[in-house]
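Researcher: Structure for this, please.
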Amino acid sequence: MKLYLDIRNFTKTKINRAELKKVALKTLGIVGLKRRIGISLAIVGARRIRALNKKYRGVDRVTDVLAFGGDSKSKTYFVEPPDKINRLGEVVIYLDQARIQAKFFGHSLKKELAILFIHGILHLLDWSDKTPKEKEKMQKMEEKVLKSIEV
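Model: Predicted structure, token format:
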């Protein structure tokens, strides 16, 4: 599988791009994708995540991660250009919330960013966490990926 990862960091904090690419590759590999995939990742601040959450979800508050993409089940992707790269969409992570959650759960920011990125990628692949059963299934997959990358 070939991954095209576009990372845009809108914060002043340095982000380890290689680690994030590793997270994406492992996630996509474990779920069994073998085609050329494109994903965008944006690391943002409070104002941007709140505006996106309000505009697209109708929720006027910050959140830790958002995912915007196509419907991979119907094979309708975010963008499908002539280069045949299936662009799944974009994951947006609020960095300060990731810091808060890392501290709360007693692990590193690196691990929390990995968890949020995995979660966002799974949403791009149509995984849901709306019901307790779906949430449990999603958390098990997140844990499986985390164990494979040892963060």
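Researcher: Any notable elements?
Model: Residues 132-149 form the longest helix (18 residues). Strands lie at 3-9, 37-44, 65-69, 86-94.
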